[in-house]
Every structure is written in C-alpha cells, then in structure tokens.
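**User:** Once you have settled down, spend some time on the protein underneath, comparing sequence with structure tokens, and judge whether sequence predicts the tokens.
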Amino acid sequence: MKQTKTICAFLAFAALASAVFAKPKSNKEEKMSTEEHYTFELPAEVVRTKVHFKNHFGIELAGDLYTPRSAPKKGNAAVAVAGPFGAVKEQASGLYAATMASRGFVALAFDPSFTGESGGEVRYMNSPDINTEDFMAAVDFLSVQKNIDPEKIGIIVMWGWGGMALNTAAIDTRIKATLVSTMYDMSRISANGYFDSADSEEARYEARKSLMAQRTEDFKNGSYKLGGGVVDPLPVDAPQFVKDYHAYYKTPRGYHERSLNSNGGWNVTAGTSLMNTKLLAYSSEIRNAVLVIHGEKAHSRYFGEDAFKNMTAGSKYTANKELLIVPNATHCDLYDGGEGNFIPWDKIESFFKTYVK
C-alpha cells in the first residue's frame, strides 16, 4: 500500500504537480525566449519555414513547416504533428515532422493554443474543444497549400494530445490517417486518476471542490497557480518512468525554454473541462486509418491499448486500425527514439504511404 501511494504521488509530480509554483510567463515573455533552440538536428534534405494560421476561435497558431528540398510543386502528401502534451514544436513534434519530411512528406509541427509561440490567453491552459479545433485548423492550413494535395493529409500526435487527435479524427473526414504515439487519454486521467485509482463519484467530487477553491484563489490573486512540470531534482526513490521524464524534459536532450513540462507546468485548473469530457466517445466511428503505437514498458501503455479497443469493439471500421507495441520501449523512448532508436520510422512511413495517397 505504501509503495502504491508513493507511485501515485510521483505520477502526480511527474505530470501535473510540483512542490514549487511559479507565476506564468506572459505571451510576450515567451516569445522573447531563444527562438532557434531545437532539440534535434534538421536533416540536410529538408527546409524549415515558420508559419502562422488561425483556428475557428480566432487564436493564432505558430508552426514550423518542413518540406523536402526535392518535393514536387504539386500533389504532395502532408502530415500535421503536435505533442507531447505540454511540449513545444521545437521538441519531439519537430523531430517527427522533420523525419517525415526527410521521407517525402510535407510536415507541419505546431504549438496548440495557449502554449509555445501560439496565441491564446490565459497561458498554460488546455481545452478538449479548442485543442481539437487546433488540429482541424492545422488541416485547414495544409489543405490550401499549393504544393499539397488536400486529399492526402494525416496527423501525428503524441502523449496527452493523443485522445484529442482521435477526437479530431472522429469529426474531421478530411484526415486520411492518424498516428497516436505513446498516448494518454487526458479526459480519463483527469476524471479517474492514474490507473483509474480515483474512479468514483466521491473522489471526483473532492477533486472538483479542490479545483473550484483554486479558481476562487486565482481570481482573487489575478494570476494562475502553476501545477508544476517534471519534478526536479529527482527524489532518490523516484520510479523509473519519472526518471525517464526527467531525462528528457530536464536535460539538454529535450529541455526547452517554452516547454511547460520542462518548466512550471500547466495551470492547476487547466484540466477542469477534461473532467467533464469523454474524448473517445465516438472513436468507434472513425472510418479512416489509425495506428496506435506504444512502448512495451511504458507506464501509459494501458491508454493506447484501451483506446484501440474503444475504436474496434463493435465497430464496422476495423480493417484499417492497428496497434503496435514496441518491444522494450518506455513511454519517453517514443519521443525521440531513446538510446535504442525505438521509433519505428519504417512502419510509420509505410502506414502513411498506404493510407495517405
């Protein structure tokens, strides 16, 4: 029992909370951070261009468009990429986009609303509605580019944006293929806790009381209390997956000045809407292709496996759905490959070339 409580405490520290809270930076302060800091090398055969576009809520989103130098002037296939949840486009999503571009796709890595270089006030918030719209806006942007075939568009999403990606795939029929990698279902974890350890009406009621008390406190203070990014320094007895988070977000391997997980984290009240929203409600109605990838040793593996079950159980649209468990890989190994080069790039390329055509 003591070990279980310790693990749950570290889970909260790793993803949502910290003992130290900081005042959120303003949008202006964020943009003053080092803009050319990327955590990966740009392939020589790829061109990166900064772009901006608006979603239907009027929020301006910032992205990096990766284009193969040898790309034809028309008819290219494209993918929009975001994640992990609380990361920025200069981290893992940029790596995925750059790699896909090196394999022949035009790829857009972007910061969802309220994060990174994208607009939206208050900062460090998230919304199942607005963030689903962000992915649709990315598809809007790609659809009107002269060098892209609007019938050849897919999306790639990591960690907590994964549930929102499936929510998007359920509504946006323009998306021909979706990859969710090392995903969390953020509505499930917000309402039920890790491993569904708080899945009861009473536990949710207590969580709601705490959130509402924090809303009142934030309103009084005129600022928003941060929940904390990845715990730092690491406790001696931290579970391995917390060490994995730290090794990515808090070291030169993956640290970025604008990344919530690398710094002060989301607002404490950021997950309020997710508690009342079930992102996977219509996932069984997704007609287009979906590939779910998770690490064999990932603490979050159950999210990917259950999401796959939700999509396929009782569904007519199962032939183009696939679950891939990567042997020996942990959660963070699928951010940048880790020490074992765990990202199955050939499989990802083959998946998109099969369905985004």
Residues 132 and 213 are 28 Å apart (CA to CA). The chain is about 35% helix and 15% strand. The radius of gyration is 19 Å.
